[in-house]
TrEMBL record:
Belongs to the zinc-containing alcohol dehydrogenase family. Its cofactor is Zn(2+). Keywords: Metal-binding, NAD, Zinc. This is Threonine dehydrogenase. Residues 25-137 form the Alcohol dehydrogenase-like N-terminal domain. Gene3D superfamilies: Medium-chain alcohol dehydrogenases, catalytic domain, NAD(P)-binding Rossmann-like Domain. Transmembrane segments: none annotated.
């Protein structure tokens, strides 16, 4: 089958690889029809997160079931399914409490598994013609009749819509509250959209790219360009000097900005400073465990500065980590089915799998208007 393969930092290519196939009785095989490029893929693409060459990327997948193992009961050939990026068994101590981002049964050194992701098991990615889905009865969100028409909405349920929602859940965003979101990439935009769904009165989005900030305006969020103003000052101005009730971090660790803007080591201190005392923070941007080694140009993995004292004195709460996609996507799917949500408003490009290398380059270089790409194998 054709698949998008990681060849080394900033090098990916579409190659023939061995066909995905059933490996265990509870697997399903899916013919992929939509698979997104994610900001998380860029951690591997840029070489910041080490990944072995030859691996197939892609964790935001949707397609049609074409084969099931003998132990699969709920999912059938012909079903159209969206696959949460986290792979869960459904029965470990974390999965049974809905913490499927931290499944203990996956073949990974860390809690949690994902398709085509360094450090989260050896599962192959879905930027390919076919994908093997482990524990298929648990990991397939079966889509309703007629879902083809809203495929670009439903595929956002694999990751960024639930992840944006998770950020607002961790921050406990409630009706009438003000929220500041760092990062207007796809995840930050989905967090802003989720804050709107939860009834926030004021949503502020911080980024330095005009095209992304323009999208913020489409959902009536206040854009804050941190290459021009201090984001903390701007948030204080918009909240009568009080600070936002809640805050979300949707940037994570970054190594470069193609536009040449300064890349601070993390947004965490600004986040704490722009949220009021006793406010809550939802941090879904990905950070890696830190070592004492000097940061290199690729990794910038020195210890991140975080003013724990400021956080502590403000009595803030913080939730972190991978989103438990499965805990949300059934309900978010219903919002899509009933025309109450349409997350595809952020999609900028649909391209065939063959054009994935160009799409990666443009998305990584933040070429204007390349906000969210769906690959169509
Ligand atoms: P992205 O790289 O497209 O977007 C990041 C945005 O942050 C960019 O628009 C960039 O200009 C902006 N940015 C960079 N530095 C900034 C700063 N100092 N202040 C404000 N904005 C800044 O990525 P994305 O797809 O939107 O993903 C965002 C983060 O979320 C990544 O770290 C990704 O790995 C992570 N993520 C986490 C989960 C999860 O489950 N926790 C799931 C998906 C993605
Ligand atoms: Zn993703």
């Amino acid at each position: 089958m054709k698949a998008l393969v990681y060849d080394g930092p900033r090098e990916v290519s579409v190659k023939d690889v061995p066909d995905a196939r059933l490996e265990r009785p509870n697997d399903a095989l899916v013919r992929v029809t939509s698979t997104n490029i994610c900001g998380s893929d860029l951690h591997m693409y840029e070489g910041r997160t080490p990944m072995e060459t030859g691996r197939v990327l892609g964790h935001e997948n949707l397609g049609e079931v074409i084969e099931t193992g003998g132990g699969v009961e709920r999912v059938h050939v012909g079903d159209r399914v969206c696959l949460p990026f986290n792979i869960g068994c459904g029965y470990c101590a974390n999965c049974e409490r809905g913490q499927t981002g931290f499944c203990l049964s996956v073949d990974s050194d860390t809690p949690g598994g994902a398709y085509g992701f360094a450090g989260m098991g050896s599962y192959t990615g879905g930027q390919a013609e076919y994908l093997r889905v482990p524990w298929a009865d648990f990991n397939c969100l079966v889509l309703p009749e007629g879902s083809e028409e809203k495929e670009n909405d439903y595929v956002m349920l694999a990751d960024i819509f639930p992840t944006g929602y998770h950020a607002t859940e961790l921050a406990d965003v409630s009706p009438g509250e003000s929220v500041v979101i760092y990062g207007a990439g796809p995840v930050g935009l989905m967090a802003a959209y989720s804050a709107r769904l939860r009834g926030a009165s004021t949503v502020m989005l911080v980024d330095r790219h005009a095209d992304r900030l323009k999208l913020a305006e489409e959902i009536d969020a206040i854009p804050i360009d941190d290459s021009k103003v201090s984001p903390v000052d701007a948030v204080l101005e918009h909240t009568d000097g009080k600070g936002a009730d809640k805050g979300c971090e949707c940037v994570g660790y970054q190594a470069h900005d193609p536009a040449g803007n300064e890349v601070p080591e993390s947004t965490m201190n600004d986040l704490v400073a722009s949220v009021k005392a006793t406010g809550a923070l939802g941090v879904v941007g990905v950070f890696l465990p830190q070592d004492d080694g000097a940061p290199t140009e690729l990794t910038r993995q020195g210890k991140l500065p975080f003013d724990f004292g400021q956080f502590w004195f403000k009595g803030q709460r913080m939730g972190t980590g991978q989103a438990n996609v499965k805990a949300y996507n059934r309900y978010l799917a219903d919002l899509i089915a009933k025309d109450k949500a349409s997350p595809s408003w952020i999609v900028s490009h649909e391209v065939p799998l063959e054009r994935a290398p160009e799409a990666y380059r443009n998305f990584d270089d933040r070429v204007e208007s390349w906000t969210k790409v769906i690959l169509k194998p």
